[in-house]
């Protein structure tokens, strides 16, 4: 197997991993990225600092190897807007997918039918942190930034441009919100619906399937690798995780329990219900004729971190607390929508907010934590029902490092969950995509073998059937309140 460095450029952490022929990591490194939360819901990152983390982890992991590197495979966070000039330097700080400055604009688009019109063209819903509303917001409030930019892209293609000089974008990143998944080309009507026809030139041409690029001199000097080294740029982290976890058959899905909760299901059809809820993503993959129906909810481990801060709990004690409370959390119920940007899947509502009900003087910290974890699992079930899960379910992310929480997910979903043994699933997916692009043979079954299965507990799953029905009732009532 070629020695390929997989780099996963996350929102708060960049990771580099090298795998052996069996898909076991043999070298890895990580470096934190800074995220700035600003007034008005703005969330930004310094591209140069993020690029510095890529250089740091690549150099560190290369030092751990006893031979040369054959290729570099990039993946990372999606959505947001990373505005760059023709040389790849950002003309303003990168706007994160967590950004909420366009909340009011998106609410207006929902009222006037813009989001529905775009969904009917592309199969993808819009949320405040995706390119459509961000670009429209900038066009109204900060047009000079768009005027100075040569390209409005995403994290992975921004890094790729600085390493190779190429202006391009992976089809997975381009999928939301302007790409017609059937043609893999931008839909002019979707762009026009967002009032951005005059800014179309900022959208980079999607790369061809299995495209390979080369490190230029500047990229080679930055990373300490040979000029001309093969580089692949994408897919972004959600489809990369699906590929890395072993999702291969139509109907298979993956639950990524990270800062947010991403639920994806593989399909061989780009067709969708144009009258359905305008939410989620229909993502093109590196293989033509294969698609991922994504429901990336804003709930996830960030909510659990909030609960730990509020309750004075060390996150390492979560397992003990989940065990200390019984299924149903002592009657406490929760809606987990703690993000200031609201929710984006399986529905979009910038006004979505969390709530706890059923509290009493007997309620314990364990009950509150378990109620929140159960509610996030209910949100996952809601997402997978919308995405059409029918096959094997895989899972990754920080949340599944807790056996107790993973068991809750399995019981709420009523599905056994396959958990890969190696945490670098996104980087693994990027490496597998690179290996295929470079015509390097690998044993997909061997790479997926290092995993374990969490089995459903049927009696507990029955308890959660009623809990899920109650969750949907509470959500329907809350959505009426948010709309007012």
From TrEMBL:
It comes from the Bacteria. GO terms for biological process: D-xylose metabolic process. One of its GO terms (molecular function) is kinase activity. Residues 4-244 form the Carbohydrate kinase FGGY N-terminal domain. Residues 324-437 form the Carbohydrate kinase FGGY C-terminal domain. Keywords: Carbohydrate metabolism, Kinase, Transferase, Xylose metabolism. Pfam families: FGGY_C, FGGY_N. PANTHER family: SUGAR KINASE (PTHR43095), XYLULOSE KINASE (PTHR43095:SF5). This is Pentulose/hexulose kinase. It comes from Saccharomonospora glauca K62.
